[in-house]
Amino acid sequence: GTAEEQAQALSILLRVCSADNRLYAALYEGPALNMMHTVFASNKCIMSPHMLKVILDEACNQSILSTSSGTLVTRAEAAVLEPRLLLLLLRGWRQLHTKQELSWEVEGSSGNRVQQGGSLWALTLCCLRMLVRDDSSRRSFNQYQMSRVRLLPTLLSACKERFLNSEFGPLEPAASSSLVELVGGLMGSPPQLDRLVLLCDFLLLMHQASDTFVTHSRANFYFLLTSETPETSEFQHSFKRRPSRRPRKNGSDAEPSSSSVTSDDIANDSSGVLKEMEDRIDQSSVESTKQMKGIINMQIKEGRKHNISSTSENSDVNVENQGKDSACGDKDEARG
Questions:
Q1: What is the number of helices (H) and of strands (E) in the chain?
Q2: Strands 113-118 and 221-223
Q3: Opening angle at CA 141, ends 37 and 158, nearest 5
Q4: What φ, ψ does residue 166 adopt, rounded to 5°?
Q5: Fewer Cβ close by (within 10 Å): the C or N end of the chain?
Q6: Residue 249 has pLDDT above 60, yes or no
Q7: 150: left (phi over 0), alpha (psi -120 to 50) or beta
Q8: Per-residue pLDDT tens for 132-144?
Q9: Where do the domains of the chain lie?
Q10: Which residues lie in Basic residues bias regions (predicted)?
Q11: What are the tens digits of pLDDT across the range 43-87?
Q12: What is the rounded end-to-end Cα distance, in angstroms, of the chain?
């Protein structure tokens, strides 16, 4: 049959199941709803905006997608009554990725309409985004309904499958903006911790390895704003060329001690060693950088040990001198 006839058949099935309690339980509580993915994947099934409209109409209390006069219009004033049908759409993202380019209008709160275009998957994301838009009066209720069926993890799983395990190209501009706004609406305000962790894991997985710098701790990571690596970035070069701001002490202010080593001398020696090794070691070698830091840390530790030993020697000499002075004073008093 045609796309309209298949959509009408699906509408009759969903309405009959909603009217009877036994059929309703058989459809939503059992595996029958997941079997519809097999029907959608069939070559005879035509995934069209009419099919999408039927599913959205049964999931919400009123229509959010209008197909009158051959024009697709999305609206935001609707409440989600059956969120499991929305899960059906997200899990069937492969069938919604049609090659047919659609054009629709998004109706704003002030009545103006914005023209958008893309695949049926982009239209689906746009319709779901309208349910959690900021100017929607049912936004909080729709967020609660979607969180009951864990719609956000399903959406992120669909994105992982699309970007990692499929041959589809990049998303259309309309689909990308709708996806970002939909995720932001599903996060809630304020967002819950488990949703933040889920989103951060997704972003880390989606980020290109060449643009991601992972530290020693797997829990810490940084997203680079440019395609440069950490070794060749301009920030690293400017940091290495930056002079030291630590003021040097004058010779008159320092205590005269030939055996003691000050912290400034250690810092100067370390900076000299660092500069010399930076000239020799390749910037792209991470292991060489670790060895360089280890040598500097060893020199600083040796300098600290030398400071402690020299300080103890000076204190012993001072104690001996004080003992000799006191003995001489006692002898002078005895003679007097």
A1: 14, 6
A2: unpaired
A3: 30
A4: -145, 170
A5: C
A6: no
A7: left
A8: 988 888 889 999 9
A9: 3-185, 260-335
A10: 238-249
A11: 899 999 999 999 999 999 988 888 765 566 777 678 999 999 999
A12: 132
